[in-house]
Amino acid sequence: MNPIRVLIADDHSVVRTGLRMFLLAFEDLELVGEVSNGLEAVRMAEQVKPDIILMDLIMPAMDGVRATAEIRRRFPETRVIALTSFSEAQLIHDALQAGASGCILKTASAAELANAIRSAHIGNTILSPELSDLLLQAAPIAHYQDVQLTPREKEVLALMVAGKTNAEISEALTLSLSTVKFHVSNILSKLNTRSRGEAILYSLKHNLVDPAS
Predict the structure, then answer these.
(1) Helix segments in the chain, DSSP class H
(2) Which DSSP category does 162 fall into?
(3) Considering only 13-17, 134-138, 175-179, 186-190, which range has the smallest mean pLDDT?
(4) What is the rounded CA–CA span in Å between residue 169 and residue 156?
(5) What angle do CA 122, 171, 29 make, to 5 degrees?
(6) Three-class SS state of 60
(7) Who has greater pLDDT, 209 or 123?
(8) In this structure, are residues 97 and 201 in contact, taking their beta carbons and an 8 Å threshold?
(9) Sign (positive/negative) of CA torsion 105, 97, 81, 66?
(10) Torsion angle of the four alpha carbons 13, 21, 33, 195, in this order, in degrees rounded to the nearest 10
């Protein structure tokens, strides 16, 4: 299999160096470029066509949220994982709304980040557990009764909100991977959302899942 091509976007050279060394440790991950702001990230995405961009959210010239939105609009095949050291619900919300495939804390372990890259590459949405909890706590209390999800779909949605991948949902609910994908597809359709990230934000906004799930 071809390695997953990764672009790093972060304005701190120390962080870029750490991420570069991390990528060298995994044979299935390949560094294809480094940039220090969102504007450069957009330009480099056009040049090297990365599979994944590790995107800092707070950068000069163009922040990570704006860069994510622009990249997802122009290069929809490229997925973005937002990296942040800030536990601000609005920032995480904005990144997901812009089209990020997930948000990971910069304190995540090398194994967690590698798994996040692999999972985002196949279409999953990844959230650090701390950030998932943050979004749940910050979500407004509002109920929307028109969405008719089955009990199983609600279980799957709750695990999506918790940042679980399809494989992890499959294991947790003792379902085949194809069945999980079927439920996820139905959930996106019923919520009229285009991605897992949008579905997660919608469910939080309308209190479709129990925070205790």
Answers:
(1) 13-24, 38-48, 64-74, 89-97, 110-121, 129-138, 151-161, 166-173, 177-191, 196-205
(2) T
(3) 134-138
(4) 7
(5) 30
(6) coil
(7) 123
(8) yes
(9) negative
(10) -100
The conformational region for residue 174 under phi > 0 = left, psi -120 to 50 = alpha, else beta, is left
Neighbour order of strands in the sheet with 29-35 = 29-35, 4-9, 52-56, 79-84, 102-105, 126-127
Count Cβ atoms below 10 Å from residue 150 Cβ, excluding itself: 12
Confidence (pTM): 0.71
In angstroms, the CA 101 to CA 23 distance is 19
| Tally of CA atoms within 13 A in the half-sphere of 162 that contains its CB | 17
- Report the sign of the C-alpha dihedral through residues 213, 123, 16, 10, in that order: negative
Note the pLDDT tens digit of each residue in 139-194. 554 444 567 888 899 899 988 887 788 888 999 999 998 999 899 989 988 888 77
Residue type, 26: F
The answer to whether residues 50 and 33 touch, using CB atoms and an 8 Å cutoff, is yes
Grouping H, G, I as helix, E, B as strand and the rest as coil, residue 18 is: helix
Strand pairing class (52-56; 102-105): unpaired
Q: What percent of the chain has pLDDT over 70?
A: 90
In this predicted structure, which of 52-56, 88-92, 160-164, 170-174 has the lowest mean pLDDT? 88-92
Nearest one of 75, 67, 5 to 36, comparing CA atoms: 67
Q: Which helix (H) or strand (E) holds 36?
A: none
